[in-house]
Amino acid sequence: xxxxxxxxxxxxxxxxxxxxxxxxxxxxxxxxxxxxxxxxxxxxxxxxxxxxxxxxxxxxxxxxxxxxxxxxxxxxxxxxxxxxxxxxxxxxxxxxxxxxxxxxxxxxxxxxxxxxxxxxxxxxxxxxxxx
Length: 131
Known about the structure:
Number of domains: 1
Number of strands: 0
Strand content: under 5%
Largest sheet: none
Shape: elongated
Helix content: over 70%
Radius of gyration: 20 Å
């Protein structure tokens, strides 16, 4: 019965990760495929570089970080990657805790970088610069 509960929890976490992270990857393939068939939709870059503003934090917080946090007891119980991390005199569990502590700082740097990309691609006022 306990194993069944862990399986259900893992599926719930996978579902949460998929729901919150999947929309981030929706606009890039559309943008690239429209360039391949040389059909340039004017609003697609604006949607692509604007949709990340609410979606990226949602994908990182409830999606990635919460899934890693929920996996910590499972990782510790099973001793995952113990052979590999024995070389570094630490456990995979300790590594994940360190990643979770550093994640917000590293994520903020990436998030601000995407704002710079947005500004360079869309220009001022949300319009693409003309050469």
